[in-house]
Amino acid sequence: MQAQKTIFESGNELAAYAAKQINYHIMGYFPITPSTQIAEHLDYLKAEGRHDVELIPADGEHGAAGICYGGALGGGRVFNATSANGLLYALEQLPVQSGTRAPMVLNIACRTVSGPLSIKGDHSDIMYTLNAGWIILFAKDPQAVYDMNIMALKIAERVKLPVIVAFDGFFTSHQKRRTQVFERDSDVQSFLGSYKPAFSALDCESSVTIGAYMNEPDLLNNKYQLHLAMEESRNVIPEVFAEYESLTGRAYAVTTCSYTEDAEVVLVILGSSYDTAMVSADKLRAEGRKVGVVTLGALRPFPAANLAACLKNAKAVIVADRQDSYGAGGGNLSLEIRAALQDAGSCTPVLSRVYGLSGRDFYVEDAAAMFEEGFKFLGASTVRRFDYFGTYEGNGEANTRQFFAPITEEISRPGITSAAVNASTGKMEVTGGTLTEISAMPKRIAPGHGACPGCGIPVNVNLLLKAIEGNVVLLFHTGCGMVVTTPYPTTSFRVPYVHNLFQSGAATLSGLVEVFHQRQKRGEIPSGDITFVMVSGDGGMDIGMGPSIGTALRNHCLIMFEYDNGGYMNTGYQLSYATPMGARSSTSHVGTAQSGKAGFHKDTPQIMAGTNIPYIATVSEHNPVDFIRKAAKAGEYSRRHGTAYVKALSACPLNWGDVPANEAAVIEASVNCCYHPLYEIEHGVTTLTYNPEDRGKKIPVSQWFEMMGRTRHLTKPGHADMLEQIQTEVDRRWARLKARHSCEVL
Amino acid sequence: MQAISLPQVNGYGYYEIRLESIGGLGANLSGKILGEVSLRLGLNCSSFSSYGSEKRGSPVKAFVRYAAPETPIRVNSPVEMPHLLGLFHERLAGKLPVMAGATEATTVVVNSAQEPDAVREMLRMHAGTLVCVDAQAIAAQAKTRVNMVMLGALAKASGFIPQDALEHAVSETLGVKYPQALQGNLDGIRQGYEAAAGRKLEPDGRFPLVPYAEPQTHWGWKNAPIGGVVPVYGSTVKNDLTASREGYIPVFKRETCIHCGMCDITCPDMVFQFARGEYKGKPRMMNQGPDYHHCKGCLRCCKICPTDALTTGNEREHDIWANHVRNRDLIVKQMQFEDAGTNSYMESESATVNELY
């Protein structure tokens, strides 16, 4: 036995703690709730100098999976964590990793897959990985998350397969528990031993090719090898579990069966619900009811034989599925258990109950009700084999009484602001837009949304929409702007609105725009204009960059509006590429061994400039006249010429660490220090629309940084070098912009 | 370590705590610290929060379960019938069922400057032990936050969490991260501990016991539009966000308003109601005043107002409903407002890195 100590941590923190003790070479990751805390905590430990894992914030989960793959091919130990749609976005890479036999560890804090979007836990994500060729361990509590993270790497390296450690999002990922951990990191490392990869892409003396093109019959043989490795793991997993038990006293198994010897009704249930079901089983046993409970410590390889043995005496099996394989008559757990029982020659009936989707809580009474269904089934065959558990009909007719009159084309066109190309000059010109009149514009977004006090997002979106007359259709990327406006069953939007995830928002709006034109052409909808606006922020232009560029290159008639709040705020402020260098975020801590975010802030307008779309502009809430003028132009360009991109720097009092009432001044400072210069690019010609130098208002970046908690440390001694680097970069970009302003062809 | 013995436990062997709060007051952190304390009391423990939001002004819950060291904690669902219930903000005693599951055996610790009798009325408290602590005032005086004072009061009210164990836990967690705030935090805990005096309330037939229930909406599988579509546009207008304010409001003085429209431009919450009128002999969009239902008290408008038409006021000192203007676009005559907080899916555990601690 090796020395252990007790700590009080959550499942996510414990996954990070295991990674710290293992001291992986790299972690490639992209933040997604509820797995995000793993990277956050590992980054926190890194900033304190407590490990040497290189944390690489990817451009999306697909990129994160690629980073991990590359690391593994170089013989590195690599680590990752994700959830839900992030997992699905990475899914394409999973068979690549297993098929080319790259061992690694991926944590899945299980969460329901969109849409509709929900962040809560169920098993609809993990079940997509059943065919990926990965070993899948399932941890029922935070202790198991820690232990399995250590064992997973050993298993992965022994059979040369990647391993997932799955656990319940929130219930396990966020619940803090008393947990035993190895006191010494060195004991973890000696348990794992050193890893010698079979092949390495970094071995230049005995070069190998990884990822050759393969046809039949080779691929069949390759997959058979994968199958054999998976079969081998059936022996390796228990061996590793046993060795680990000898060091820690903590025992694990691929199946855990309680009271199954004489149980009539057995409930099979995964994850955190198992313990809750056991409380119910203990109670029922005390009353003389013959119930049993089974859970699984591994989904792949599927422990079919162990399960069949556990269930051999049951009269009825109830499988609690925390997802549905729609149309199959059960979730994947049910389907696999039915297959396992049939293989074992058992005719025991299997009831499936889809429960607890999207984190719907599972109470002791729920487990009792499930057992009761089993007994009822034994008594009368009228009980359905497949059903949902916990749904309700609703009260009568859905109340769809409107609070507002519709915003008609006529109402939305009070004639305050308009933009048109001046026939004699050929230039787009704006008329109207008077601030004292603009409040007459109907508000396309209703009050009562849940943004934080002082949030910049509604301010910026409202300003944009005030300048756009006529019909508007909105599409929001996932992010704070979307979450706070559409808490089901309510919405703040008074105009048509669509949400889609970052990776496909721009593409979705492209399709909507083109169908508008097609249907108008075919006479299916009336003629007239609609201004289409995509709204993105919270790092949406990182993971959504590719499709946004694609949309721009196709030059669809729409506006892309970016509220750049400089981080993934909706998930708790992880760094985005737009976060200022050196800024503190929950994945760029400031500590003895690390100074905030590495790398300069992304220059999205200039990236978009490379697509040569008709119109690009940067705007600021502190300069509403300029904002409205540009928004009106963007509207007209998007209706007549193609794609317009508009970017606002958008205040986030919560995560910027400043006073909500001061945000207009903070944004003004960002403009005056030239971090966020105001300009526009019309058909390739750059014009500065506000030059703080001309007005004697130019300030150093440090003055802006001083105003925010996330950057204030940069103005203190010890960070002078970094501050100077940032100032130099901001000056360089500003000088380039002035040069472009002075010369049309630049 | 000799484990402290719990004064009472439920049928599963747990002593359960529920904290009801508004994001920003630090209830989640309090739950975590109460969890940390278990290491010093030799108890088994779990601690978690209502997952989903920790944005400022949004309702949050935190849960703690203690058990004897040999008793495994196997229930992962929310605390239904707490032994100890902490209410971090008076305003929670509105339409939210914060008192659900509180029985005669429950001790309720409330952050309130009011007398217990008035607090009982406000909470519609059935029975139990009521502890009122003016955590707001103590925190301001001790230069700490409400949650530290509440922690002290909760520890005292529990009857088994010694003050020194709590101080120890705070020193070793927060104290390491934020050493400069430690003295204030410890003062807050001490004063909260000293100020917590309970009064036993018998059931008097006026307020029934509120059973715990899972939240449900009116829309179920039979009547909800397919695909999660929301057909009622602008329906968040029925949300009353009053609870998001932290005591301050913009006060509108119509006489000095020049109707420049800047408040409408800077307001994230579409609070100001403008209508056509005449100003200095010319037609003009005129500011009628704020709809306070949706004002979250960010005070952006007071900062931007070029005159003194909008100034910061203490909400307690103003009759805001006398100054109130109903949203001009509503077509419904009457509307049942729902208490709401700001919301998002920010992870409750994520370090909001710039929070004070």
Keyphrases for this structure?
A: 746 residues, alpha/beta, Rossmann fold, 3 domains, 27 strands, 36% helix, B: 357 residues, Pyruvate-ferredoxin Oxidoreductase, domain 3, Alpha-Beta Plaits, 2 domains, seven-stranded mixed sheet, two-stranded parallel sheet, 8 helices, 13 strands, disordered C terminus
Topology record:
The complex is a heterodimer of chains A (746) and B (357).
Chain A: E1 4-10, H1 11-22, E2 26-29, H2 36-47, E3 54-57, H3 61-73, E4 78-82, H4 84-90, H5 93-99, E5 105-110, E6 135-139, H6 142-159, E7 163-168, E8 176-182, H7 185-192, H8 218-248, E9 255-258, E10 265-268, H9 273-286, E11 291-296, E12 298-300, H10 304-310, E13 316-321, H11 332-343, E14 350-354, H12 364-379, E15 386-388, E16 417-421, E17 428-432, H13 456-466, E18 471-477, H14 480-483, E19 497-500, H15 505-521, E20 530-537, H16 540-543, H17 545-554, E21 559-564, E22 590-591, E23 594-595, H18 604-609, E24 615-619, H19 624-640, E25 644-649, H20 653-656, H21 663-672, E26 678-682, E27 685-690, H22 701-705, H23 720-742
Parallel strand pairs in A: 2-3, 2-4, 4-5, 5-7, 6-7, 10-11, 10-13, 13-14, 14-15, 18-19, 18-20, 20-21, 21-25, 24-25
Antiparallel strand pairs in A: 1-8, 6-12, 9-11, 16-17, 22-23, 24-26, 26-27
Helix pairs in contact in A: 1-2, 1-6, 1-7, 3-4, 6-8, 9-12, 10-11, 13-19, 15-17
Chain B: E1 14-22, H1 27-41, E2 44-49, E3 59-67, E4 84-87, E5 107-111, H2 116-123, E6 128-133, H3 135-142, H4 146-158, H5 163-177, H6 182-195, E7 198-201, E8 239-240, E9 248-252, H7 262-266, E10 272-279, E11 282-290, H8 300-304, E12 310-314, E13 338-339
Parallel strand pairs in B: 1-4, 4-5, 5-6, 8-13
Antiparallel strand pairs in B: 1-3, 2-3, 6-7, 9-12, 10-11
Helix pairs in contact in B: 1-4, 1-5, 3-4, 3-6, 4-6, 5-6
